[in-house]
Amino acid sequence: MDLSQEFIDVLKAVTKKRARFVIDTILEKGYCSTEDLKNAGYEHAPRAARDVRELGIPLETYKIKDSIGKSIAAYRFGDWEEAKRKNQLSKTSGRTQLTEKLKNALLEHYGARCNLYGEEYPARLLQPDHRIPYEIGGDPENMMDLDRFMLLSPSANRDKSWACEHCENWSKKDISMCKECYYAYPENYSHIAGKLEKRVSVIFNDEDMYLYDELLAQASENGITCEEETKRMIAYYQKMLKMRGDKK
């Protein structure tokens, strides 16, 4: 491969084991496939590729055939110079670390609350995160631009990571699509990871736990899930309003 010395130096500096395997495999054979990763004991290929990208190394994803002829994903180096020109992965040291100063500013702005699930959470466990995944939008010029970041609970962070990595936009990298996604802007969105869906998170606290118990009992009686029972109750409520003339 025809790699610049600058890019080679960046590759040599990587010490993380999983990222190191991906890089060495690409250097050896020109690509690293999900089959290569699985054979090496790495079951989560997208996570391995993310490890590399988070270090500031551009990767392209494409399709090849595995040893039995099945279509699988493979990774190869992207254009280092192009990546720098686009200012998405311009820092050879990789993504800028999200600082404690940023987290404190987010806590002051939003409170100790998970922006995705809407629930209060211990501040020490909340994690600052890019609203638009770093792999798609990179770092903003102003790393204290609070509109570009959100606070997530650990479970919400895992939920978002899995959804983003399995979204079609993970390879398309259309920033405008991310801007309309629930996982980036749950306050105002048109889709969830590319699917025409809407989601409502309801937290039952001590004083209204009885409502959850009633919902659960009603759902069990009807042989459906709590989510399905909630939709059924809303539909019934709307029907009653219409019958009473409260709603046209």
From TrEMBL:
It comes from the Bacteria. This is HNH endonuclease.
